[in-house]
Amino acid sequence: MLIVQKFGGSSVADAEKINRVAGIIADTYADGNDVVVVLSAQGDTTDDLIAKAAEINPKASKREMDVLLSTGEQISVALMSMALERMGLPVVSLTGWQVQMRTNFDYSNARILSCSTERIQQELDKRRIVIVTGFQGVNGMGDITTLGRGGSDTSAVAIAAVLHADKCQIFTDVEGVFTADPRKVPNARKLDEITYDEMMELASLGAQVLHNRSVEMAKRYGVDLEVLSSYVRKPGTKVKEVVKNVEQMKISGIAKDNNVSRIAVVGVPDEPGIAFKLFRVLANSKINVDIILQSIDRNGTNDISFTVSEADYEKTMQLVEERKDSLHYKELYGDKKVAKVSIVGAGMLTSSGVAALMFEALSDAKINIQVISTSEIKVSVLINEDDADKAVQVIHNKFFD
Length: 401
Ligand code: ASP
Ligand code: MG
What we know:
With 401 residues, this protein is α/β, with parallel strands linked by helices.
């Protein structure tokens, strides 16, 4: 079998952990498999590099940030290769440009366009274990790019896809995908399986277990994906197209995202073009808008509420303030102390009353819902950030106890 194994930063944080991971890789290889390994930067390396850059130039260009941040992964692959060399195994480390991980020009948040199999295949043919840097690629000019925070998962899935790997295993410090963050919700359960769609929702809703673009890519190319622990050797969570769903669970998981701010544009005229003007301005500034809600007409005016990430909050407020005259609104409110709590489950397609159950849990806990938003397989609410952890716990109790 050809197996791609990805290990996250915490799994390779120090020498002891590197040796432990080397043991997993060595065993996979000893079983007769071809093994390609993708690594993240060690521990907090990426954050430390960002801090280091900020000391020199808080407004450093994204291009130079990528030159800097990509070094973290290069350290990991070299050290891992050394650990395997010491065990007497044939191994080679390769960077993003060596494997021709081609991306677009969007420095710091680049998208993968293609990845060559040539070099990796040559090495595998020599029965070498191939250790590749995650998170980085190279653009059409030959510049180093990075894929956005957490991007190594996507590197691993891309490599698994182009190599037609039999499996892509994402090793992390939790045992798989849980019904809620097990560090916050002690009775959270590990799922044996989850669908790509559910996983995509959970990943983009703030569950930190997988980079959402990696799941999107896995779905597109049908990559056999599994999330499992670097510490406990047992099956993790399989991410696939259809799951057996033996338990017929109504939902698969609950996610929380604190990085949310809510903006309300109150009293805009009820006429064509207002929403267009507002969101065009934000789109032009590359501000990502998440939940959008427009109230029904009341005496010829509407209210439009929407959410943006906390990083975009000040900019968004400023842009909307500057356009008070063209948007003709009466008031503008902003609130950063907001969190989004969401339930996700393919089971919602067939069972009714799922949303009501969530609202009941919040009501019993006297947690006020500010905004509700739903899609086919998820229900999200915006609540006060201070209530978020409690909200996740009470919703979890409601669905899983
Ligand atoms: N080292 C990068 C980060 O911390 C990429 C990754 O870990 O996936 O975001
Ligand atoms: Mg917030």
